[in-house]
Amino acid sequence: MCGIVGIYLKNEDLYPELGGFLAAMLVEMSDRGPDSAGIAVYRDPVPDSSCKLTLYAAGDYDWEKLQKEMAAYLQSDVKLDVHASHAVVIASAQVASVQDWLRTQHPELRIMSAGSAIEIYKEKGPPREFVRQFRLHELNGSHALGHTRMATESAVTTEHSHPFSTGMDLCLVHNGSLSNHNRLRRTLRDEGVDIQTDNDSEVAAGYLMWRLREGDSLEDALDRALTDLDGFYTFAIGTKDGFAVLRDPIACKPAVMAETDEWVAMSSEFRAIAQLPGAANATIWEPAPATVYTWGH
Amino acid sequence: MAAFDLNSDSVRTLNQHLHDSPSGTLSVTNPGGRHCIACGIDAPVEVSIDGHVGYYCAGMNKQAQVTIAGNAGPGVAENIMSGSVRVKGNASQSAGASGRGGALIIEGDASARCGISMKGVDIVVAGSVGHMSAFMAQKGRLVICGDAGDFLGDSIYEAIIYVRGNVGELGADCIKKEMTADHVQGLKQLLASTGVAANVDEFRRYGSARKLYNFNIDHADDY
Amino acid sequence: MSHAKSLRPSATFSQHVLDEIHRAADQGIYEIRGFGAKRSLPTFDDLVFLGASISRYPLEGYREKCATDIVLGTRYARRPIKLKIPITIAGMSFGALGANAKEALGRAATAMGTSTTTGDGGMTEEERQSSKTLVYQVLPSRYGLNPDDVRRADALEIVVGQGAKPGGGGMLLGHKITERVAEMRDLPRDIDQRSACRHPDWTGPDDLAIKIQELREITDWEIPIYIKIGATRVSYDVALAVKSGADVIVVDGMQGGTAATQDVFIEHVGIPTLPAVRMAVEALQELGMHRQVQLIVSGGIRSGADAAKALALGADAVSIGSAAMVALGCNRNIFVEDYEALGTAPGYCHHCHTGRCPVGITTQDAELEERLQPEQGARWLRNYLTTMVLEIQTLARACGKTHVLNLEPEDLTALTIEAAAMAKVPLAGTNWIPGNNK
After folding, report:
1. Going from the N-terminus, what domains does chain C have, and what CATH number goes with each?
2. Domain segments of chain A: what residues?
3. What is the pLDDT of residues C282-326, one digit of tens each?
4. CA-CA distance, B7 to C100, in Å (whole number)?
5. A32 contacts on C by Cβ (under 8 Å)
6. ipTM of the predicted structure?
7. Among C95, C121, C172, CA closest to C361
8. Is A284–B130 a contact, with Cβ atoms under 8 angstroms apart?
9. What is the pTM (predicted TM-score) of this model?
10. Which CATH architecture describes the domain A2-33+150-296?
């Protein structure tokens, strides 16, 4: 059970303030999710010839060594920025080759996200601490999703935190409880989708990735999810260009949307949105059940 | 008039004041979507809240007249006993849940489960309501000037629903019923007393078909 | 020469199963009944105490006191509940029970220094007057719920579920919905009550946390807030109840009783109380909240032995429902012809749902209610509770304890592999605790 937040900036002038907005919203959702926090930020997109990955290492890690190794292997530039327990790697190479190398040569690292704009950070502990650790206020970007977690049926670990990455520049956050995720997990594994935890939200993310891999558009995949996923959920999905929201047909879990000329925001509770400038005069509504909403460039 | 600014005063202080020494009128500014504002009042006070509130605003209200100049989160006026709660904006889910008396007026729209489990409250919505509204509604009246989402009055008991706009798929055991002169008169009075302008002749009445009232078993033996 | 063969019953299609299929074929609806699970289940009977020996010394009785007092609701409440004994009376509705029964429960509890609990029908005047410490339930149905009763309650108990039907709502059949019951529940007379299984204004622990906040605000943070769950995913649920802000958690195992539920629900959903206790305690310990958020355990608690074992496993108290009914006369060998009229017999009756309780407990019929006089009922229940407490003390003293809460799992050993695995107590004569030692 959790809190979800999402913010999409229409006004480029506000890009430098994205991190601050996200931080305020995230902290406001601490009550809903005291155990861990995670964000997906879309920022500083890299050119087509490059790729960006976020990596996670438990404990102290020699990131400099990794950077050198990777550059040597790829025979190209590798930029690496450390953010607490994570590192953002930008390589002038194809993402598949980078991922393969990491998986074989550095299985101790967790690949949190991959794509051209996305960066995912997740950590155990209260949201306030997360904001401080990852210096959220310094992050710029065009849009972001955030999640605060109160663990239900799976453990409180970094792996179990949201957002879950579903593919290139894609991620999912979830508030609710799926009731058929166990059998679905087995099906997805049979389809070759790599599901690592017993977390129901990861199954939802894996399901989306599978459908997209099979050629569905995001909208079609989400429509199909309404039939194939059972339980109570509000999903927020991050894409390279924007985000999507979906609620199950019964729609017991909360979801609030707000829009101004400057931004579109989404949250489990209005009080997170209340932190944003101009919120008092925003258009506020609730997404209807079983309806796919998308925003993007 | 007492005034509370929730950017500096806590909701706890506000509620304690409303319980201990309720004055005639009280204003609340900067609610910022906070929860449980003005809940559990038991006094004939007037509370004006300037902005959006979170969950359970005016929960279990008795006697007070509470006005929210903004939107309300889930469960506004839940279990209201008497008095009135007016939402000038929209209300989220479960507005007026299990309300037992008094009036809840929503000048905008209400979302899912408006009037769920209602037990005698009058709810008047100037706009539309979401799905599953009046679920297991036992007593009271739900007036919808706009449209009603799917499954209206699912498993309804004796509550009465008046709808002016479109109704989606009706809930189990909920059927359209005749509008008698008494119903029209009552509705007219309710609209007038809550200050919601609408033409009574445009409303239809919905209620229980009463087919779910007894299981199909006759003898004690068979239980 | 013919050889007479004895009749051979089928274990799969037993007589009971055959009767039930015939009944379903006749009626086309599930069977509804009262009482708890009747099938054989692992219980506390399969645990025994390791009394004093050479390595442990017992207490004498008399002035070598074995204290039984407990405090519930220390986490947040300004006025926690102090009880003289670690046994409370579980939630049972007026509607399911008659007024005399509720009054008897209240009087006995007051005399013993413990609490009673309202049920899925609201608070009656009789109960508030007769019971000095009254826990007020907030259920999915919200029947009768009102702030006046909230404010005069000594604690609130948010019911997420009960052991007899975790995931199900309350049920009361038409012949028990009398004028008074109907008025309290805002229902028409004589209809079969349908109850919601989810709360109307919250779903999930994140929203439950806000609901608890609301109830605290309405009661000015004075009184404890309990959360009651039927035992299923106990580890997760107890952790979530703590995170949602509960003062006290009530875990009701599958043996928990009911006045009316589908038989299929009673017998096939939920886990026994035995594993539920240990799971709940472990969840609390993992969060560092054992004894800070108190745990009350119910579901087939029948004696001081059961209570003592639950305490030894880490519960702060037990709650009794069915056993309290039995003390009031349920299934007593009197008015036999009235049992027979229901198609049952003393010792077999589970017909609470009919409203024709032969001993006047689970009925709204004035004539039948006469058979249970509140004073007599209170005396019976007091005697039974006194017996239970003496039994707990006897066992605790034998284990060398000056307070019953000092009983611990190491005072126990198990007689069966299931009990050892479920209670995480070694099998007698071994160090072995079977199961997944996570």
Report:
1. 32-423 (3.20.20.70)
2. 2-33+150-296
3. 999 999 999 999 999 999 999 999 999 999 999 999 999 999 999
4. 52
5. 206, 209
6. 0.94
7. C95
8. no
9. 0.94
10. 4-Layer Sandwich (3.60)
